Automatic annotation (TrEMBL):
Pfam families reported for this sequence: Ferritin_2
Residue span of region Disordered: 1-24, 39-70
Native source organism of the sequence: Sphingomonas adhaesiva
UniProt xrefs under PANTHER family: DESICCATION-LIKE PROTEIN, OS05G0151100 PROTEIN
Designated name of the protein: Ferritin-like domain-containing protein
InterPro entries on file: Pigment-catalase-like, TAT_signal
Biased composition (Pro residues): 49-65
Length: 351
């Protein structure tokens, strides 16, 4: 391994700078969590929602008031479900196995993350280093979110399907995307580096849209800043994965069409909301990494943006449509065979 490759590997313990940032947010969020949630509920009960100021059409939804039916605790727990899913995928892929018991305990129906295994990266040491960094960041995010919640409110990890059978979540998703066809065909994200990147593409793009969609729902500004930081981390990861797939797709002809198929499948699952160019919402806003032809020549599509250069959002119910792999209103399925834990657990019937 070269010196540059060695430097890219994630350290076994968080860097001091990362640790100091986490300590700052832990103190700030831990102190204000219960008070902010109670205050938010009080505002919701006593203060009418102000009329939004005039703005260009379409206008963003007003922010600054708590989300009806969802507290900040509910939103953090919803995010924690997604972090459990991703952290286990990357932990398995880099050979660490499932998350430890201390990182997954809590309230609700506890379950195991089953079916994952290590990827053989072979000579792809640079991509292995990327994967190790993402695995370390994902575990840190699980621990961070758990640390901000009152101990009595932390949700347990639900059952997570990371297996590769014909009816596994990965295979069902791949079938929807046109990657495999037959009812008995399987998609194994651990079988090769390219397959691993496709699995990562499936998760990371959804994580970015989930955190962006949750931003207007968060009442406490310190929570909002922390969530924005997590979203930025996911966006860095997603851009790395999308760049790798675009580059490797120049020699492996199936990769770019696979990303297009996954994007189309996710669009079909999360419905056809009315277009809002300011918020980054459209009936068909998901995008693979296929090149885009312009009058100035072809360009890459590493960042899935609209005409304003804004990436798109998903609501919690739309995110559940995708991870449950179901366009209907259901409470379980796909990667969460028994459903997620917490208050936000039902997907929406796609319109």
């Amino acid at each position: 391994m070269t010196d540059s490759e060695h430097q890219m590997e994630a350290p076994s313990a968080p860097e001091p700078r990362r640790a100091s940032r986490r300590s700052f947010f832990t103190g700030a969020l831990g102190t204000g969590l219960a008070a902010a949630t109670l205050a938010g509920r009080a505002v919701a009960q006593t203060t009418p929602t102000p009329s939004p100021s005039p703005s260009p059409s379409p206008s963003p939804s007003p922010t600054g008031t708590p989300t009806p039916g969802l507290s900040d605790v509910d939103i953090l727990n919803f995010a924690l479900n997604l972090e459990y899913l991703q952290a286990n995928y990357y932990a398995y892929a880099v050979g660490n196995g499932a998350l430890a018991a201390a990182d997954i305990s809590g309230t609700g129906a506890a379950g195991a993350a089953s079916g994952g295994r290590a990827v053989s990266f072979g000579t792809e040491t640079v991509i292995q280093a990327y994967a190790r960094e993402i695995a370390a960041d994902s575990l840190a995010q699980v621990r961070f979110l758990r640390g901000q919640l009152p101990s009595s409110a932390v949700i347990a990890q639900p059952a997570i399907d990371l297996s590769v059978g014909a009816n596994s979540a990965f295979s069902v998703a791949a079938r929807r995307a046109g990657i495999i066809a037959g009812a008995t065909d399987t998609f194994d994200p651990y079988a090769s580096v390219d397959n691993f990147l496709i699995g990562a593409f499936l998760f990371k793009d959804v994580a970015v849209t989930a955190y962006k969609g949750a931003a207007p729902l968060i009442f406490n500004k310190t929570f909002l800043e922390a969530a924005a930081g997590i979203m930025a981390t996911h966006a860095y990861h997603a851009a790395t994965i999308r760049t790798l797939l675009y580059r490797r797709g120049q020699s492996n002809a199936v990769l770019i069409p696979w990303t297009t198929g996954i994007a189309a499948a996710r669009d079909a699952l999360d419905g056809a909301p009315a277009e809002d160019l300011i918020r980054g919402i459209a009936p068909n806003d998901d995008q693979g990494v296929a090149k885009v032809s312009t009058p100035d020549g072809d360009r890459a599509n590493i960042v899935p943006t609209n005409s304003n250069g804004i990436t798109f959002s998903r609501t919690p119910t739309q995110v559940l449509n995708i991870v449950y792999l179901n366009a209907a209103a259901v409470t379980s399925g796909g990667f969460f065979p028994s459903g997620v834990n917490g208050t936000a657990k039902t997907s929406a019937a796609s319109s």
